[in-house]
Write a structure and sequence with these properties.
- This protein is of the alpha/beta class.
- The chain starts with a helix and ends with a helix.
- It has a domain of 127 residues: Glutaredoxin.
- The strands form two sheets. Strands 5-4-3-6-7 form a five-stranded mixed sheet, with helices on both faces. Strands 1-2 form a two-stranded antiparallel sheet.
Length: 192
């Protein structure tokens, strides 16, 4: 699957050309530094102790802006939508409130977790606050996950089954809450 994501990512680079530039400020922590928990974002939820079997998602771990950790080597325990976003990405600015709507509608049935990619911590927190977003978001300031998947642009969303297996990938913006809930129903088997 990772090879598939790389091929898809490269093939659609031109489509996402408007979302390939970013800027980071001097407040961005050094690689490996723990972001502060002064964010308005929720902490990342606890994950199961079960390892992902043969994970199609890169085995990476990130600190979350609201506290906690997102460990992609461990099963989430519930169906999960993971959305890579950045404040520098215009389509992300339109899509992120839809992810919040999904998080609000899903309750405990589906988790929504963001991964702030190639961004500065303060820019991401400011944008999330302006957009009214509170769902948990991990911080990947250097874009390590994007690089591992082979992405040059955002947004990118992947859908994980409760056991951590990759159920679906969506490259490019999701246009509506209806489209998003249809994707959840089709690929995660959860009707919202």
């Amino acid at each position: 699957m990772r090879r598939h994501a790389t091929v898809v990512g490269l093939a659609l680079t031109a489509v996402l050309a408007g979302c390939t530039s970013f800027s980071r400020d001097d407040e961005t922590p050094a690689p490996g530094a723990v972001p502060t928990a002064a964010s308005g974002l929720d902490p990342c939820p606890e994950q199961s102790d079960e390892p992902v079997d043969g994970g199609a998602v890169p085995a990476l771990e990130f600190d979350c802006l609201g506290g906690g950790t997102l460990d992609l080597t461990r099963a989430p325990g519930v169906p999960t939508v993971v959305n890579l976003w950045g404040s520098w990405c215009q389509p992300c600015r339109e899509e992120l409130p839809l992810m919040q709507d999904l998080a609000d509608a899903a309750g405990d049935r589906v988790r929504v977790i963001g991964v702030v990619s190639r961004d500065g911590e303060s820019q991401a927190e400011s944008f999330a606050d302006d957009a009214g977003v509170s769902f948990p978001s991990a911080f990947d300031g250097d874009g390590e996950l994007m690089a591992e998947i082979g992405l040059n642009g955002l947004p990118y969303t992947f859908f994980l089954a409760a056991d951590g297996s990759l159920a679906h990938e969506e490259l490019g913006p999701i246009e509506s809450v209806d489209e998003l809930t249809d994707l959840v129903a089709e690929h995660l088997g959860v009707q919202l």
